[in-house]
Design brief:
The chain is of the alpha+beta class. It is built from 6 helices and 11 strands. The chain is elongated, with a radius of gyration of 20 Å.
Length: 229
């Protein structure tokens, strides 16, 4: 049963359980925003969603999706790893609005657009609020990669250490109207000199860049490592 009063409690109390009634979904979002995890868990189960066992915040595997961040009127669609039906951890490096890799956002339940990658369709949700900030700063650096595989290896190295990297060649900017449609998307990297957005402590970023430059031909060249914002 629902253990705490909150927005939508009365509506959910009158709704049938396990049948996808939106009253439970609305309550789940409201309880998540309040970090009332007991009520949130009960609401998602009432909606008909199976959750991982446990108490407190939900950390499950709900797949990947996209979220349209909105900070001070700047909008950017980013990829998230869904932790629960309404929370996602940002898994690429945002480049607008001072947002950060690794932050946790609460998103709406109704998709507002789609992204298609390798034939798989992913929903795009609108952000409701930033729930948990990330401590990883955003940096920029210029890297000269002789081969595409060299840059892919650099991306993999940062990922292995829990950090983010976003090559400029993988970005595609869309206007706000177009962003809400359905779009084919490829996350690819290209050879040559280009700017990278990094999410890592500066000293760690420098160490990994130097390590990769010593291991393989990324042109043995990187420069201009600096914070963003």
């Amino acid at each position: 049963m629902i253990r705490r009063a909150g927005p939508g409690r009365e509506a959910a109390a009158r709704a049938p359980r396990g049948e996808g009634d939106p009253a439970y979904w609305n309550l789940g979002i409201a309880a998540t925003v309040q970090r009332d995890w007991a009520t949130a868990r009960d609401a998602w189960v009432g909606f008909g969603i199976r959750l991982p066992d446990g108490e407190g915040g939900i950390t499950g595997r709900f797949g990947h999706a996209c979220v349209r961040l909105d900070t001070g009127g700047e909008r950017e669609v980013v990829w998230v790893e869904r932790l629960c039906p309404t929370r996602g951890r940002v898994v690429n490096v945002p480049v607008t609005g001072g947002r950060r890799y690794g932050e946790v956002v609460v998103h709406d339940g109704a998709p507002n657009g789609e992204r298609i990658v390798d034939g798989t369709t992913f929903p795009v949700f609108d952000e409701l609020l930033l729930l948990q900030e990330s401590e990883l700063p955003t940096l920029e650096v210029t890297v000269a990669a002789g081969e595409r595989a060299d840059l892919e290896a650099l991306v993999g190295l940062f990922t292995e250490h829990g950090y983010g990297v976003e090559p400029a060649s993988s970005l595609r900017m869309l206007c706000a109207c177009c962003s809400e449609g359905t779009h084919e998307q490829q996350r690819s990297v290209e050879a040559g000199a280009q700017r990278l957005a990094l999410a890592a402590p500066p000293e760690e970023a420098r160490r990994l860049l130097e390590r990769r430059a010593a291991e393989a031909a990324i042109g043995r060249s990187w420069s201009g490592l600096e914070p963003v914002g």
